[in-house]
Every structure is written in C-alpha cells, then in structure tokens.
Amino acid sequence: MGLAKIRRMRPRLAICCLALCLANSEQAALAHGGVVLEDDLCVINIGYLQAHFKIYLPGERQRQEFCEDIPSTGESLFVMEYLHSGLDDASIDFRVIRNVTGLGRFALWEDVARIADLDEITVFHHAPAVVPGVYSVVHRFDEPGEFIGIVTAVPNDASTPYTAVFPFEVGFTGFGVWPLVLIAIAILQLHLWHSSGRLKRWLGRFRPQGFGASAVLVCGIYLASEAHGNQAIGLSGADSRIHSRSGHFQVSVAPDLEPLAINTIHRWVVLILAADGAPVPSAEITVRGGMPAHDHGLPTLPEATRYLGEGRYLIEGMRFHMAGRWEVVLSIETDALHDEVVIPLEL
Known about the structure:
The protein is α+β, with helices and mostly antiparallel strands and 347 residues long. It has six helices and 19 strands. The strands form four sheets. Strands 1, 2, 3, 4, 5 and 8 form a six-stranded antiparallel beta sheet that branches. A five-stranded antiparallel beta sheet has the order 11-12-13-17-16, with no helix packed on it. The longest helix is centred in the N-terminal third of the chain and has 27 residues, at 3-29. The chain is globular and about 75 Å long.
C-alpha cells in the first residue's frame, strides 16, 4: 500500500477511531443505576441478590425486550428472572414513583429515602409477596415522564431488607447510535469540503492528515487505557492500614478475591483498630461508595454480617461492575466514637 494512499485513508481512520471511542463511552454509561448491562443481558442487583431484568410492551412491541427506558406509554410488563436462590423465598416489594429528585438517572436509594411521603408520588405499588422462580408485574403508563423503580427484597433467612432503585424514562430511550452516525457524517463532510478547497476558503489552512493522526493517537491511548483498566488487579493498599478521617480508627482490608475482578461478588474481612492499635469490638459498620468521576454509587448494597473477633468484621456483597477509580466508604460507630474511612481502589 503506497504512502499517498495511506494518507488519503487517515481521515477515514479518524472517523472509525472516534466512533469506536464514543461507542465505548456509551457502553460504560449503561452501567449507571440499579440495572446494569452484562453480556448483553440486563441484571438488577438487590444487595447481593441478582436477577435478570426485562421490560416488555406486549401491546405494541410484542417480544421486544427493554432494559430500563420504555419507548412509549401503555401497558408495561416488568419481569425478574432470579439468578440467586435467595430470591425464591424472599418477600419482594415493587414500587414505581415519579422521579422528583431532580437527579435524573443519577438518583440513588439515599435520595429516594429522603423523600418524606413516597405514597404521594407513587404511581404503582405491588405489595410484598413471595413469588418463586420469576417475578412479574404489569402497570399501564398513561403519560410519559421520569420515574424510579424500587425493588425491596427480604430473604427468608434474614430480617434486613435489600433495596435496588433504577431511574428510567417512559416515552424516550435515548438516541441510540444516531449521534455516532451523525458525527461520522460530519467529519467525512468536513474532509470532502477540504478536499475540494471549500473549507480552505472558509477557514484558512487546514490539515486533515494531522487531524486524522491526532484522532488515531488520542483514541488509541484511550482504548489502551480502557483495556488495561478492565484487567483484574489487586486491592491497592490491602495490607496497609488506612487512618479514618478524624484519626479515631486504623483500618485494613483483606478481600477473599485476589486479584479483584470486575462483576464478581466477593467478601472483605475488615480489621478495625483503635488509634492506639487495640482491636475494636462491637462496632456498627455501614458500607457505601461509588465512582466519583461517574457520579454513581456501588452496584450492590454490601453489609457487615458478622464479627469474627480480634477487631475483624466480615463484609459480604462487594462487587464492582466497571473499570476505573472507586471509593469505598466505611462508616464506623461505637458507643463513644463515630468516624469514616475512605478506601480508594483502581480497577
């Protein structure tokens, strides 16, 4: 292949690389909310419990499946096919409310919990019930808008409820691949205008070869970093102690999954010591966190389930569903002290 032909192909390479980068970013965006896309399947995480999640419009779209957003009003069928046996005998409560948080797709359970009266904004509620195998409910949406689905499950062998929320829209499902197509067409059109000399007359001197090479380089670096981030790596600083914000506690973490891998439920053993190094018994631990750069929380609701002695606590239901920087926040409370420790992770 001649050098001149390669130069002529650079703008086309730029278009392909830009489209690939944008598509990769769009796929990452699907991970927001309580429903995530895994291997082309929608999965809802109710604490450490998981189920395949589907929405149907039987009257208009027959067997077509939707993950969260519903393209039109009308009768909608919500279906959960259990992936965890604990859901078979769990009491499940399903509720849909109007999204009044003002946070759109980034609304979390903490935001819903701050709403004073859920009943006032509830558009559908299915009372708690035990439904083995497959859970399904039907609701008719008479008008478009923003909503939040709330699924609460109480397993038979536990008294603690697990809750998942998933913001969604009715009457709009995004632009799909059309933004990518339009961007590619715009770049190609700019190249044609330049080749004909029209763009040069409008904007002055312009070098598509330089632009194409830059786009290839930038997107190549971006995709390489994404591929590196998707590799499973160990928990940074797992063997070192992290001091809490106010200095009341020293914390170290030992996951039972090493190296850490994406989309894998695992457990942590957390060692909590006082400032003087003495083990801390009888502490109440609350787990939260998320990805600061993506403005969303953890995909599950991990919790401290057992005290193992000598200041060690078992945390179950840990899971990370995408590559990038995470922060896990442990809120530690004893009879005399309350403090928080932030554990940074890079996956």
